[in-house]
Amino acid sequence: MTTDFTLLLQPDRGQYARTITAIAPDDFGAWLHDQPQAVRTQAAAARFTGKAGTHLIVTGESDWQVVAAIADPHSPWALARLAEILPEGVYRPEGIDAGPAALGWLLGQYRFTRYKAGEPTGQRVLLTRDAAHIEETVRIAAATAQVRDLVNTAAGDLGPAELEHEIAELARRFGAEIAVTQGEALARDYPMIHAVGIAATPERAPRLIELAWGDPAHPGLAIVGKGVCFDTGGLDIKPSAAMRLMKKDMGGAAHAIALAGLVMAARLPVRLHLLVPAVENAVSAASFRPGDVLRTRKGLTVENTNTDAEGRLILGDALTRAGEHAPDLILDFATLTGAARVALGPDLPPLFTDDEALAGALLAAGTAEDDPLWRLPLWDGYDDMLKSDVADMVNAPEGGFAGAITAALFLRRFVREGTAWAHLDVFAWRPTAKPGRPKGADAYALRAAYAMLKKRYG
Known about the structure:
Elements: E1 9-11, E2 18-23, H1 28-33, H2 37-46, E3 55-59, E4 64-69, H3 80-85, E5 89-94, H4 98-107, E6 124-128, H5 134-152, H6 160-174, E7 177-182, H7 183-189, H8 191-197, E8 207-213, E9 220-225, E10 227-231, H9 240-243, H10 251-265, E11 271-281, E12 293-295, E13 301-303, H11 311-323, E14 329-334, H12 338-344, E15 350-352, H13 356-368, E16 374-375, E17 393-394, H14 403-412, E18 420-425, E19 429-430, E20 440-441, H15 446-457
Parallel strand pairs: 1-6, 2-4, 2-5, 5-6, 9-11, 9-14, 10-11, 13-17, 14-18, 15-16
Antiparallel strand pairs: 3-4, 7-8, 8-11, 12-13, 15-18, 19-20
């Protein structure tokens, strides 16, 4: 992460700052009427008409201030565009609550500069009277930036070993335990994870990474993240256009790691179990083949009908492992299906769960946090699509119908019966920029999930 967010959000103690005056677009006429002639002249010269998302620099004899037209003062992104473009300095918002808008102010200053030095822009500091929530806002911004950094990193620099290092650093920060299973033990105990990742080079060997934290007497919370560090599609190889962004196929793992960090930083009273099956779906003589029948940790057999439907395979073994501790709740994040993007686009992650209370809590949190989800059905009528002539199930039904749903139904077969579980099929990528959300990697449903967990356990 290239930005220290702790410097960018400070308590308002009356120190010098330039003012950002927020006005509603509908109030522009009344505002302009009340301004002195000099300000009206500047607005006319700048063609400032109070359109939402625009702003005016008002100069005085010795200083200048900002007037911003903001459609929704309660949105976390209300000030994000200003954070991207204003000169460096200290700013005090007026007419808008800096609390909700502070997150966008921070994330508007996110830059990914690992491979390309960005132009120095200085720091834009926001003052807030809501000092009690500064630390939490900074943590959420940092978690979002962690997702962005991990997913933006080229696959050549982020493989299974680097994901393991990221989780080891998390364990070190919070005094958690970490366990890594690979090699012969992985082949024996997690055969689907092993099968998907075995074609990679030895330094990028597959592994299951687990982190445990918290009092064992507290309710168990398992967070599972798909960690396919690069996905060629395997022997069912992807065309080049589809492979171009497959560095982001570990986006589920990035979300899971960031959420686990938030849970530990907030010291929620849970027994946390983070599980990341980390692989590279490569092509070599060792690749698993279409038609192979894979054994699983649960004991089921899976006929592999598509080596490019590998994410659900590694998650199946990880979900089985998560259920062995009889947790109160399992959440999984995965960049799982293109079908989810066709159905809902990049911004709206589908939520799958059979638990009505959990669905309601997640959807409500998404609305409250402006981090929306949309529930799709775990439709039992499509379960027959997973039938196989030679094994207990297939991993990818023929025809492509209801692809996001059948993938979720596949995962459900590996969830411990009676356990609350939700599956989030996230894109982890933003194809076009929005204020505070640059083109590239991004976190989806992270804030919603965290808010739900705080309410459930806090």
